[in-house]
Amino acid sequence: MKIEMICTGEEVLSGQIIDTNAAWAANALMNQGIEMQQRITVGDRLDDLIAVFQERSHHADIILVNGGLGPTSDDMSSEAMALAKGEPLVECTPWRLRLEEWFTRNGRVMPVSNLKQAMLPESAVMVDNPVGTACGFRVKLNQAWLFFTPGVPFEFKRMVNEQFIPFVQSQTNEHVEVSVRKLLTLGYGESSLADKLTQIDLPEGVTVGYRSFMPYIEIKLFARGEEAIGSLANIVALVKTLLGNVIVAEERSSLAQVVHERLLEGAQSLSVAESCTGGLITSGLVAFPGSSAYLHHGLVTYSNESKVAVLDVNPQTLDDHGAVSIATVEEMAEGARTLIGSDYGLATSGIAGPDGGSDQKPVGTVAIGLATSKGVYSQMLKFPARSRELVRQLSSAVAYDMLRRALNDEPVIVDYASYARFAK
Amino acid sequence: MKIEMICTGEEVLSGQIIDTNAAWAANALMNQGIEMQQRITVGDRLDDLIAVFQERSHHADIILVNGGLGPTSDDMSSEAMALAKGEPLVECTPWRLRLEEWFTRNGRVMPVSNLKQAMLPESAVMVDNPVGTACGFRVKLNQAWLFFTPGVPFEFKRMVNEQFIPFVQSQTNEHVEVSVRKLLTLGYGESSLADKLTQIDLPEGVTVGYRSFMPYIEIKLFARGEEAIGSLANIVALVKTLLGNVIVAEERSSLAQVVHERLLEGAQSLSVAESCTGGLITSGLVAFPGSSAYLHHGLVTYSNESKVAVLDVNPQTLDDHGAVSIATVEEMAEGARTLIGSDYGLATSGIAGPDGGSDQKPVGTVAIGLATSKGVYSQMLKFPARSRELVRQLSSAVAYDMLRRALNDEPVIVDYASYARFAK
Domain named MoaB/Mog: which ranges (chains A, B) (predicted)? Predict the structure, then answer.
């Protein structure tokens, strides 16, 4: 079974946007043990689209086509498919009715241009899109099924998960059982992780993959076949032993999610005081529905005046130690916690760069504090100063991890391999 | 002249890393008026590489190949090219000497595996790499020149700029000047924008593109050729007249950036009080270096207690009107502004969903307030409730836009086409 992908869109081809849909899809398929053979990116030229549909239809069995289903004139996937197959576009009446109903429900008249989204190649099988105006569809041409999906990421993802993957599975005879385990790491680069893991003798059918998404690297352990799946638990245990504190979560793609779940479960409340992270910690939690149950407030006290006025930090502390210091961040954490009586107070203060560093406190220096009912924990770390964004992301991640450890009754301050700690 | 790109590498194909080289290259070429026709991404399988080199060599004139020039066993671009052309790999002696010299200069003995990097297809023309161990090369096959470049981004970028683009230009006779103008819009969907813009009769050589990145849609006007470029200013003026308030920025990709620049220029200070946006407004500004010059603090007062304790909101106001109300958000904005004397105070309070809505205030209801030295402006809007993320992004965008308008001495409250406003 040969599976390929065709990504359409001038803006993807011309590099104005990076094609995250393609990476996401390849990854989602891989999680199901489905391998993609190749991927073609083409612009919005009718002739190019027709040529690539025809050409690939002789080589692939299933082709995931993304984009070009919108209502505007540069959306021409349907038209190109109809021409490639030599058949007319015809109205898909169920979808036109759905569109009209959707606009009526939202108190609007449907723009004429949206009618185009109900015109499909004559032999097309419609694929439902429950969250957008572009329906998907599939058409058989030569040896291939071409499966068309919308470009809007959340519509695309839903259609791939709910309709494309089941369709692929329905087309294969042999179905190999696949299992994936994911370990989220913080503090090592990919090559260091790979060096460590070469010590493990992987059994037949088990492979390791790495996925880097700032500031984490996720280790993925794939097992194909019953025997390999049976060995997975032991492999995971071995990896955890080898990597220790570097592993910060299992089967979760961010620490924000872990902390969110633990706070909800434990009915614990949190207040956050952020300086260099500037709202990242708070907004990472607010992204999850239900966070209002535990999050009292997140105070981005960016200026010294604000640290004093809002968090009751002692001006003398700021004078003696500076804003980026263990002393200040401890008062910030405690100030945030006691303001309206939260169980935990989490605080950051650091130099995200590119300017503002000094010999003593270079760019990348960040103090992080956690106030709890048992006392205040804090550390000052030196993160790689490669970018402002990276420093802020790493600071948020370590802050979340300190809270996670406290919620788990584990030691709050631990080593993360590559981040140096300042003496207290 | 047909130009294509072939990206190699299992990790790019399988979505473990996003192919930023491809986007970068397409963009760099477009800036020179060179258009890329399509892009193919293939894994590290010898047969797949050979097939794609041969197949595309009948269609394209120049093919930029990226990756697969390293010293390890999964780097097989040279070998695949030699096999595709049916010629042997031979040592490129100048490059072997360069490699040996490079290792000697760095006090190291060259590993045997690096010898592989000096083995090129017999007919290859070597392309210098001044910053790495992988030389580039080009080979003519059928109608195409295949131009091979290293995968390491900074080596790749340098080779494209210094060698690939001049090579492409040497192969073309005509050189077309290209210009792009960008308009950021808020409040209309892509189809509504397109409907509006069909009223404009675009001159030859001018095309319109849309780029959607939540919550904005960017309109891009491309002009090719001197005459088209000359007409661009008038077209932009026409688009601005047609769309009015819907256009919120020019040549900028977010309102956060516009507000950041205007606050810095005007030496004005800002305090933010966020509820439903949960730190998005603040962290969008902190993302820019230099924001500490104007941002006093961003207070995510998520709970009612916090609104009272931190922002001095009157508990009676919360009782009478609720947290999501004009009255509350005005007190929040004024509270944030006066706490340490900022020029502006910006506040949001809303129901981001998926739960928490009522008949009177359904999910998507958001109150936004802006306190200034001249008074407090506020409005309560109903955003589409498609997702929590969307409601939060739209709320942030409208909040930024109110501030932008105040900074420009424009009316603060305007209509954005598709968001309904609640009576005050």
Answer: 4-171
Nearest CB to B209: which of A11, A15, A37?
A11
Would you state the pLDDT for residue A175?
67
Q: Are B312 and B392 members of one domain? A: yes
Interface confidence (ipTM) of the complex: 0.72
The CATH number of the domain where B316 resides is what?
3.90.950.20
For testing the chain B interface, which of A158, A264, A306 should be mutated: the one with the most B CBs within 10 Å? A306
Spatial distance between the Cα atoms of B17 and B329, rounded to a whole number of angstroms: 43
Judged by a CB distance cut-off of 8 A, whether residue A417 touches chain B is: no
* Average pLDDT of chain A to the nearest whole number: 91
Q: Measured between beta carbons, which residues in chain A are less than 8 angstroms from residue B304?
A: none
Residue numbers of chain B with a pLDDT score lower than 50: none
Is residue A284 domain-shared with residue A382, that is, in the same domain? Answer: yes
The residues, ordered by sequence, that sit 6+ positions from B233 with a Cβ below 8 Å of its Cβ are none
Retrieve residue A127's tokens.
């694929």
Q: Does A111 touch chain B (CB under 8 A)?
A: yes
CATH assignment at residue A198 = 3.30.70.2860
Which tokens go with B287?
Answer: 């993302």
DSSP labels, B284-296: HHHTSTTGGGTEE
Number of domains in chain B: 3
Phi and psi angles of residue A87, each rounded to the nearest 5 degrees, phi first: -135, 160
Per residue in A399-408, pLDDT (tens digit) is 999 999 999 9
**Same domain for A161 and A15:** yes
By the CB < 8 Å criterion, does B357 face chain A? no
Tell me which residue range forms the domain holding B326: 255-421
- Asked whether residue A8 falls in the same domain as residue A83, the answer is yes
Q: Chain A partners of B39 at a C-beta cutoff of 8 Å?
A: 13, 40-42
B13 contacts A39? CB cut-off 8 A: yes
Mark which of B227, B250, B273 sits at the end of a domain. B250
User: Of the candidates B155, B171, B187, which is a domain's last residue?
Assistant: B171
User: Could you give the residue ranges of the DSSP H alpha helices within A124-225?
Assistant: 153-159, 165-171, 190-197
Q: Of the segments A169-173, A216-220, B389-393, which one has the largest average pLDDT value?
A: B389-393
A303/B297 CB distance under 8 A: yes
- Same domain? For B274 and B236 the reply is no
Contact A154 B387 (CB under 8 A): yes
Tell me the shortest Cα–Cα distance from A312 to chain B, in angstroms: 11
Q: Are A187 and A417 in contact (CB under 8 A)?
A: yes
Residue tagged 């880097």 (tokens): A212
